[in-house]
Amino acid sequence: MRELSVWAPDKKRVEVVLADYAQAMSAGENGWWHAFVDCPPEATYAFSLDGGVPRPDPQGLRLPDGPHGWSQLFDPGEFVWSDSTWRGVTLEGAVIYELHVGTFTPEGTLDAAAERLEHLVELGVTIVELMPLAPFPGRHGWGYDGVAPFAVHEPYGGPAALQRFVDAAHGLGLGVCLDVVYNHLGPDGNHLAEFGPYLTDQHETPWGMALNLDAPGSDAVRRWVLDNVTQWLRDFHMDALRLDAVHELHDERATHLLEEMSREVDELAEREGRRLWLIAESDRNDPRTVTARGRGDDIGGLGVHAQWADDVHHALHVALTGEAQGYYADFAAPGALAKAMRTPFFHDGSWSTFRQRRHGRPVDVEKVPGWRFVASLQTHDQVGNRAVGDRLSMNLAPGLLACGAAMLLTSPWTPMLFMGEEWGATTPWQYFTDHTDPAMGEAVSAGRTSEFAAHGWDRAQVPDPQQPSTYERSKLDWREPAREPHARLLEWYRDLIRLRRERPDLHDGRPARVELDPEGGTFWMQRGDLLVVVNLSSQPRSFAIDGAVVLSWERGVDVVEGKLEVPPECAVVVDE
C-alpha cells in the first residue's frame, strides 16, 4: 500500500485515478486529501477534482508523457549512491559552468552530458550548473516555462538520469547546481490553479501571474516551494540551487520566502553534514540578498549565499565589443569597467538611464567577500536573448576573447562560464521552443520576430523559435576544441583557472585595486602579488613594471629591464 496526498483546499470531492480504477480520497486538515492505494511501484496516476478531468500530481516526481499526461510513481530512495564521503564544494575559489542539457551534447540527455564531465574536470571547473529541468510541453526548450517543479523533463532522461548525473559528477569531484524557477509557471500544461490558489493576481510578473507567496492560501504554496528545495538537495544530492529572477518573487510578508528558504537550507546542510548553497539571480543590486540573517530580534539580510552580478557582465561586454545600446549604455562611461571590477554593483544608488531612475545599493567590499557575487562574460540570457544568439566568439578576435577571460578569471568574483565559451564555440545559442499548442507556438514565433523587427532587424534574420533547425543550430560542436584557434583558447582558459586555483590572491574575494586608461585601451588589476595587465587596443603598449610574467596570451612576453611590452589584444599576468 502507498499513501498519496494532494492539497486541494476548495474541493468537495477528490479521487485518485489509476489505470484500472478510481478511489475516493479522505479530507484531512488544511485542505489536504489522503488515500492509501494498492498499486505497482511505477504506477501512473492522476487526481480528479470534483469529477473533473484527471490531472497530474502537483508534487509528482515523474511525468513520462509530459505535463498534459499523468504522473508516475518514482522512489528516489531506490538509487544506490556512491558519494557517501562527498562533503560538497566551497563557493570561495569555485568556478561555475552553466550548461543546457538539451544542447550540451548531440544526444541532448543527462547521460550523454555525464560522459562529457571529464572535459570540465580538465578545464578546472568545480560546479556544474544545469539549466532548468522541470517538464514542459514538447521535447526542447530553455526550460524556464516548466510547469512541474518536482519532476525532471523526460526527454532528458527523467529523475533517475539526474541521479546518475549527480553521482557521476561527485565521483569526479564536481559539485552540481540546479537552476530552479519559483517566480512563475509556464503557460502550457499548467493545471495547478485547478487544485488551489498556487497563483495570485495580486502581483504580476513579465511572464504572467505570480506564485502566491503572500495572499490567502499562501502558507501551503510556500511549503510546496520549500519542499521542492529540500527534495533537490536531499533526495538528488544537489550541492546548490540557482534561484531564477528572485526580484519577481513577490512577497510582502515580514519574513521573505528567501529568508525562510536560506534558514531551512542551512539547517539541512548541518543535518546532512555537507555544504549546501543558494545562488540568487537578482536585478535589484541589493547586498542585503547575501547579508546574513538576523539573530534573535535583530533584522538582518535574506541569508542567500551568493547572487549573480550582471553589472560585471555588462561592463566587460561593453569594454570588449563597444556595444552601447539598451542597458549597455550606462556601461560605456569611461570608468564603468574599473568600478565594476572594484565593486560588483556599478549601479549602487546611481542613475540608470535604462530604468530612468536610481538603482541599487552600495556593497561594503571590505565586509562582503567577492566570492558571494557570480560574474560572467556570457550566460544563456546574455547570448540567447540576442536576435541571432551570437556568442562573443562570433564577433571578437581570439585575442580579445583571451583578454575577457583574463579579466573574469582573475577578478574577485566567482566566475561562471557558459558552455562552449572556453573554446570560443562558433555555434550560436538561440531562443528555441517546441510548443505543442499551435496557437501558442505561432504567438511565440510572431512575438519574437516583431520584438527584434522593432529594433531594426530584418525579420528574415531572426530565427523562428519553433523551427527544429533553431534548436539544432544551438548544439555545441565537440569537434571544435581540437582545432585552432579553439584549442589555443581552451588552453588559455585552463591555464587561467589553474592559476586561480593555485594562487589564493585570486580567489580569496578581497577587493581588487583597479586602474583603467580608456583612451589607451589598457586595464590593470592588482590581486595581492599578482598584477593583471590587459591591452584591449590594436597597438602595443609599454609599462614600467618590476616582476616576472607568469602567464601571457601571446608567447614570448616578459619583463625586460623593468619594462613590459604588451602586444595588441593581449593579457599578461605578472608576479611582482
Give, in spatial order, the strands making up the sheet with the most strands: 8-9-10-13-14-15-18-19
Q: Which parts are unreliable, with pLDDT below 50 for 5 consecutive residues or more?
A: none
By CATH, the superfamily of the largest domain comes out as Glycosidases
Beta-strand share of residues = 15-25%
Q: State the helical fraction.
A: 10-25%
The number of helical segments is: 14
Distance between the termini: 70 Å
Largest sheet: 8 strands, parallel, barrel
Assembly state of the chains shown? single chain
Strand count? 27
Q: Domains counted in the coordinates: how many?
A: 3
What fold name goes in the CATH topology slot of the largest domain? TIM Barrel
The global form is globular
Binding site for substrate: 242-247, 310-314, 380-385
Protein name: Malto-oligosyltrehalose trehalohydrolase
Region (Disordered): 454-477
Site (Transition state stabilizer): 381
